[in-house]
Amino acid sequence: MSVIYVLIPIAVLFVMIGLAIFFWAVKSKQFDDLDKQGFSILFDDEPKAPAKTEPTEQPDHTTNSSDHEPR
Question: Whole-structure pTM over 0.70, yes or no?
Answer without folding.
Answer: no
